[in-house]
Amino acid sequence: MSFTILFFAFLVIVCIQIAYYLTFLFSFSIKRVEVRLKKHIPVSVIICAKNEAENLQRNLPLIAEQEYSDFEIVLVNDSSSDETLSVMERFKKHHSNIKIVDAKPIEAFWGNKKYALTLGIKASKHNFLVFTDADCRPNSSKWLQHISSKFSNQKAIVLGYGAYAKKRFSILNSLIRFETVFTALQYFSYASLGRAYMGVGRNMAYRKELFFNNNGFNGHMAIKSGDDDLFINEVADNKNTAICVSKESFTVSEPKTSFKDWILQKRRHISTASLYKSNHQILLGLFYTSQLLFLILGTLLLLIGYNWLWVVTLVVLRYIVQLASFGLAAKKLNEVGLIFLTPFLELFLISTQLSIFIANLISTPKHWK
């Protein structure tokens, strides 16, 4: 009798998983990418940098040379101890559209990126703000054209895709890229359904007036992370958010090269999820819980050999739907090589996320860098 209950619980879990993946499939994965470039609106690109001298030296030329007629670059030095400020000043000598904000440390906001970002936003002169990080490079010289084209009278937020550079023969790199695509599949799908819950600071944009109408980051200033996802979670509604997933609009970052550094980064990101709106927490929590239970119950039922033909059928059906949804999204996001690694990487990712969740219950990361 107890095994029968387990089987029906597994059946329910599989149905939940399939429902989610079908939702992702039809709301994002199979949708065509629409590219309609518009007249260039004035934009301010804001980059907050802390000890990023080398990355700025490498990536700033690609931003400064964007094929865009009216934009400024606001560089925020967040109390760096390296040559970050000097690099910024050298670039400013050659580019009249660069503005520098030197954020001095103050006790009330020590180590808080949101304080530095707020100074950068206040210093910007345009109403349309585009955000990226110092370690990001635009995927094309038309990055700003594509991102800004998604703004309209109704759309005040644009969510872009921040990819990670590919490294051959690296399990960690494959895992990082898989997690990035998997997360993008979700937040693009939710945004397409009018339920946007997050964005990534590596590539996103919004109107300045939206920031000030929300009193900036005041609702979560004490939280060291969340300048991107927590802010979007607060201000996005069912009409004001657009997504931009043309390959020319991507940014590309250098990924972490050690599991320790990546785990610390993910701990900071995951720590903000408990502050999302309750409906987002429920939907995301149900999805991740069903993922974990699918693996646990499926493995258990196969080991005891209970109704194994039905269990195998359900497992195969779930993976077919998942691969269709994830595979089409991966193709759209230029990560086709990850598709056939999905079952292995998913298992690794779920185990890692569970470990991070437990670690964050014990202690929460304190600094953004």
Automatic annotation (TrEMBL):
Keywords: Glycosyltransferase, Membrane, Transferase, Transmembrane, Transmembrane helix. The chain crosses the membrane at residues 6-30, 282-302, 308-329, 336-362. Pfam families: Glycos_transf_2. GO terms for molecular function: glycosyltransferase activity. Residues 44-188 form the Glycosyltransferase 2-like domain. Coiled coil: none annotated. Signal peptide: none annotated. Belongs to the glycosyltransferase 2 family. This is Glycosyltransferase. It comes from Winogradskyella ouciana.
